[in-house]
Amino acid sequence: MIHYDLPQPISCFVDRKLLFDLASECEGMLPCQIFSLAAYPQESITFQILLEDGSLFSYVPLHLLYHKPPETSDLLELVDVVYHNCPDSTLCIHRFEHLRGDRVNCFFKRRQCWLSGDYLFTIDWYSANDLLHLIQLHNGQFALLPNHKVKFLNGELRFQPFKKLHATWKV
After folding, report:
1. Per-residue pLDDT, 81
2. Domain definitions of the chain by residue range
């Protein structure tokens, strides 16, 4: 399976250039709804969107979707907002109720900056022991980041030198 429904559609905007093969003269934003994602192995997660006029687009990258029109031209690029490519197409999507609505702080290493946002849901590649959280950033963009790049509960803006758990627990 490559396509997955989201827990609920996300109202947002798509960069109009994308709909015209990235033609620079097609500036602006169009309202749309993200309703599913696609996980092609070794590629970035992409999304399916439905425009208000009923037009459907697939393979839409995250860096060209905005939950509100951005207030700055200094936007994060795909390499910033998607932490890694899909390890495989076997995943599950889950919204942790305990984290829902939490304001989070996200660290973007390439830019050496912190941005705040809100947790939406988690994508878990369970066979690869990997997951990413979809965060609605307050700058208008979205990001898919792992645990070690996100601080929940407005925690302090630094990370402890913790290590990823690799153990398997069996009896």
Report:
1. 97
2. 3-151
